[in-house]
Specification:
mainly alpha, two-stranded antiparallel ribbon, globular
């Protein structure tokens, strides 16, 4: 039994790792295609049919480029930075529920690497460690532009983590759990008929303000436009990764797309029902539980892909914020708004849904 458990979890971990890397790889291709469409020009179209092999060509280029290390007294930290940033980006996928339960040869297989009861805290803890990858890399580069980018990144990510955490508190108050699987199960189906009045079960309908705050903070946490101040080319050359080359630079760039993928998955799980979809019970009763679970995985990844597209859409639509505007939005608008939302949620729960 123990051997089967380790094989099962090992297969899930390897599968999630492979899918994460593949989606992040082709997100670079998708970004170029979306940018070309918005700018009314041709995108990548040389490497393979329709440019489909362009990400592989970019990967080969990154691996074969000369690995340049600047004259810095902190070469070990210079190497550690991108590896730490990449690792923390990948680890957060371990607690995300990618689907329900599959029955394989009489064994119930849960499509999640680790179902821990404090998964939300785990995600926030790992994401906060990821800041150190940027700080260490920028400081160890011995370059003023890199240092400025690292300082910007650290202050930006720490500031918006506060608003993001406060926005999640309102959701946790309604669900009563820190487990991402339980939060997903509380959004089962699309309409909740259990009460005296039917209502939409997804958290985006119950907590639209929390969703909006979390979405804005997700852009800041992933350093995406309009909050890409740590690496804005017009001011800081390349920001915290100015001195990096070869696969060290590749790790920084690739981790950004992994963070996009993971944050889109978190948004789908926390606010859009995760692997739940309308008619899920009908599919389970008509076709079978395994079919419903597989369709649930497809539904979750559809939501994730739309989230990644939304990241790209915003990048090629909105201009970059000034740094003072970025800090003002985080501390003077989002944090007070999240606190007010918590108070309103508490009052509604006490008066309308007393336990």
């Amino acid at each position: 039994m123990e051997l089967a458990f380790f094989i099962e979890k090992g297969a899930i971990i390897l599968g999630v790792f492979a899918i994460t890397m593949l989606i992040a790889l082709y997100s670079t291709f998708g970004e170029r295609v979306v940018a070309a469409y918005f700018q009314d020009r041709l995108g990548p179209n040389r490497a393979g049919p329709g440019g489909i092999l362009q990400p592989l060509a970019d990967g080969v280029k990154m691996f074969t480029k000369e690995d340049f290390i600047p004259n810095t007294p902190n070469k070990a930290l210079f190497i550690l930075g991108p590896f730490m940033f990449m690792t923390t980006a990948l680890v957060t996928s371990s607690v995300i529920p990618w689907g329900g339960t599959l029955n394989i040869f009489g064994r119930e297989v849960m499509l999640q690497a680790a179902d821990i009861n404090i998964a939300v805290l785990f995600v926030f803890g790992v994401v906060s460690i990821g800041v150190y990858g940027i700080m260490i890399g920028g400081w160890a580069s011995n370059n003023k532009f890199s240092l400025l980018g690292a300082v910007r990144a650290s202050s930006q990510m720490i500031s918006y983590e506060v608003a993001m955490g406060l926005s999640i508190i309102a959701v946790l108050m309604m669900t009563g759990t820190l487990s991402l699987r339980e939060i997903t199960e509380r959004q089962h189906g699309f309409i909740d008929w259990s009460g005296s009045m039917p209502w939409f079960s997804w958290n985006v309908f119950k907590q639209p303000v929390a969703f909006l705050i979390f979405l804005i903070c997700a852009f800041a946490e992933t350093n995406r436009t309009p909050f890409d101040l740590p690496e804005c080319e017009s001011e800081l050359v390349g920001g915290y990764h100015t001195e990096y080359s070869s696969m060290k630079l590749g790790f920084y760039l690739f981790a950004e797309y992994i963070n996009m993928f993971i944050s889109s998955a978190l948004i789908a799980v926390l606010f859009f029902g995760g692997y739940n979809y309308p008619g899920m019970d009908w599919v389970a009763n008509t076709i079978g539980a395994n079919a419903a679970t597989i369709l649930g995985v497809g539904a979750l990844f559809t939501k994730i892909i739309f989230g990644i597209f939304f990241y790209m859409w915003i990048r090629w639509t909105l201009p970059r914020f000034r740094y003072d505007q970025l800090m003002y939005l985080g501390w003077r608008i989002l944090i007070p708004l999240a606190i007010v939302n918590i108070v309103i949620t508490g009052v509604v729960l006490l008066l309308v849904f007393p336990r």
